[in-house]
Design brief:
The complex is a heterodimer of chains A (270) and B (313). Chain A has 270 residues and is an alpha/beta fold. Chain A has 9 helices and 10 strands. Chain B has a two-stranded antiparallel ribbon with strand order 1-4.
Chain lengths: 270, 313
């Protein structure tokens, strides 16, 4: 389904701010698989997601999705194949527009937009039914501006919008990180239900080790723009939050050693 | 009374301009100053075509189309060429000044001998009111010419507003509103933000040029200076309109914007009648827009300051 072949991305090349955000990342996802990406801050996990979504074009390498080579496609063209939920609850919805209008925008993801009515009666009842399934009482507030809703409600609606037309790939970028624990739980449950129901191929970035072990069927851990660990099958099944934290600790210790060795070398030679 | 009717007619025509400013400023959040050039462009193209013997309808449509092209050029500069949005507008506006002079051939083009839409409205009014030159409406004497022009303009503006409202409820129209509201989201839903921005600026400047074409026919001439200060004027109408309707609902805002434009013209007419120096008009308009923009923030700060001691006590 998704095939990433040896992609590299360097931001601000040949300047003091040069960042090698992705170096030699390869990944293959079979249809219906649910991959969780974890990693420290700046490890490149969100960058990997953005590379797939098309927020920037990678320096080298190839990305293939659902049989299309999308490496050079602009972001809005990839949206035909990809549904996205962002970390910031404000990013996924248009605040001054109504719930019904927002969902009707999502109902035409990647399709041409002509002069047909955006919200028509048949579409509206369909929207109402799906919103009712969220159990948030939003079906009676279809004409309210989305800006008046809470972060959790907006994120649930964004999730509904991203999965409205079954996408070939669903990208979730720490989509519960900005929510209070209760809303986060609610959104995670919804995420699980939707992915199960539609058998969606999913890439999800998270900070929460608990989410990483509870959801998904495969975990990759990134560090400095590379994939450090890839837990699949039985290894994934045995993984517990403590194990993942242990691996982070390993990385940290190795790095500390690197810096202390560097200091030692500096002291003896400079 | 003639003065008031004139102000209302001009207010309605400039309502189109205000709608154009509403589209660029409020829907797309782009301070698009192309308007200063495209209002004149609409007037110039329409006037030049009429002088060279074309019909008024064709000339007005051509003027509108010219404005749309100008808006699209600004859009291309701002999106595809990555030029600062305000600067893109300034570049096109500056270029349009020369273009307008070329189109007109001189700095002022009179239309007194042409059959304009204004003449058409007058002829139509004469037919309906049976040749009388004055009407008696509620004890006021009103010239048939003025009355028929007001009615004609009113019907035209209502039709434009309805069309615009319906457009904003279509798939394309909602995509346009969403682009101004949250570009990141609409891009993730498969819409090219660049393309929609270019199209939106074309619509905005088309409305503005249409307004210019009608103003030229109403006042009987096109002038290369007629666009100066027009963006602030349009913004004043939009702000008054928002205050009048007090919501963010599109339908009401469209109506409010036109009402704002008419109200603004009436206030100007009354102020001039009371002896306001016409040279001060733009200064006062600018001051008004400045105050309208800072007032909400100022009011908020005053409220906070008033609350602060209460909390300490």
């Amino acid at each position: 389904m998704l095939q990433i072949k040896r992609i590299f991305k360097t931001f601000n090349p040949s300047t003091p701010n040069e960042v090698r955000a992705l170096s030699d990342v390869s990944l293959h996802l079979t249809p219906g698989s649910f991959l969780i990406i974890i990693g420290t801050n700046g490890s490149g996990k969100s960058t990997l997601l953005n590379a797939v979504a098309g927020s920037f074009i990678v320096d080298t390498g190839n990305i293939t999705l659902a049989g299309h080579n999308i490496t050079k496609w602009p972001e809005h063209r990839r949206a035909k194949l990809i549904g996205r939920v962002f970390q910031n609850p404000f990013s996924g919805t248009a605040p001054t527009m109504s719930i019904a209008e927002n969902l009707s925008l999502a109902a035409r993801r990647g399709k041409s937009r002509g002069l047909g009515w955006a919200v028509h009666r048949r579409g509206a009842s369909d929207i109402r039914d799906r919103i009712r399934s969220l159990n948030m009482g939003l079906e009676d507030r279809m004409d309210n501006a989305i800006g008046s809703l809470s972060g959790g409600q907006r994120q649930a609606l964004t999730l509904l919008m991203a999965s409205w037309l079954k996408p070939d790939l669903l990208l979730l970028d720490e989509h519960t990180a900005a929510l209070d624990p209760k809303s986060a739980d609610q959104v995670i449950r919804l995420t699980h239900d939707i992915i199960e129901r539609d058998k969606l191929t999913t890439l999800m970035v998270t900070h929460s080790m608990q989410q990483a072990v509870n959801l998904g069927d495969r975990i990759i851990m990134m560090h400095r723009g590379r994939i450090l660990h890839d837990l699949n099958g039985s290894e994934r099944a045995r993984a517990r939050p403590e194990d993942l934290l242990g691996r982070f600790e390993d990385v940290r210790r190795r790095e500390q050693m690197d810096t202390s060795v560097a200091e030692m070398l500096q002291q003896s030679y400079v | 009374m003639t003065l008031l009717i004139g102000a209302m007619t001009l207010g309605l025509i400039l309502g189109l301009l205000a709608l154009g400013v509403y589209v660029s400023f409020r829907i797309f959040n782009i301070p698009d100053i192309t308007a200063e050039g495209s209002v004149t462009l609409g007037a110039a193209v329409a006037a030049a075509l009429m002088v060279s013997g074309h019909g008024a309808v064709v000339a007005t449509i051509a003027g509108t189309a010219a404005g749309m092209v100008a808006g699209a050029v600004t859009g291309v500069l701002a999106t595809k060429c990555n030029i600062n949005k305000l600067l893109s507008g300034i570049i096109v506006m500056t270029a349009l000044y020369s273009i307008n002079l070329h189109v007109m051939g001189k700095s002022n083009l009179p239309l007194l001998n042409e059959t304009t839409l204004a003449t058409r409205a007058e002829q139509f009014g004469n037919k309906i009111f049976g040749g009388a030159t004055d009407l008696n409406i509620a004890g006021w004497d009103v010239g048939v010419r003025d009355a028929s022009m007001l009615i004609g303009v009113f019907l035209f503006i209502v039709a434009t507003c309805v069309l615009l409202y319906l457009f904003f409820r279509t798939n394309l129209g909602t995509a346009m509103r969403a682009t101004g509201d949250n570009p990141q989201m609409i891009c993730a839903l498969g819409v090219s933000v660049d393309a929609v921005t270019i199209f939106g600026l074309a619509v905005s400047n088309g409305l503005i040029a249409l307004s210019g074409a009608l103003v030229a026919q109403y006042q009987g001439f096109a002038d290369v200076q007629m666009g100066v200060g027009i963006v602030v004027l349009g913004l004043a109408s939009v702000i008054i309109g928002e205050a009048l309707v007090g919501t963010r609902a599109v339908g009401l805002l469209i109506t409010g914007t036109v009402m704002g434009s008419v109200l603004f013209r009436l206030l100007v007419a009354i102020a001039l009648r009371w002896g306001l120096n016409p040279n001060d008009l733009k200064l006062i308009t600018a001051t008004f827009v400045f105050l309208a923009l800072v007032m909400p923030d100022l009011a908020r700060r005053v409220r906070i300051r008033r609350l602060a001691p209460a909390r300490e006590a």
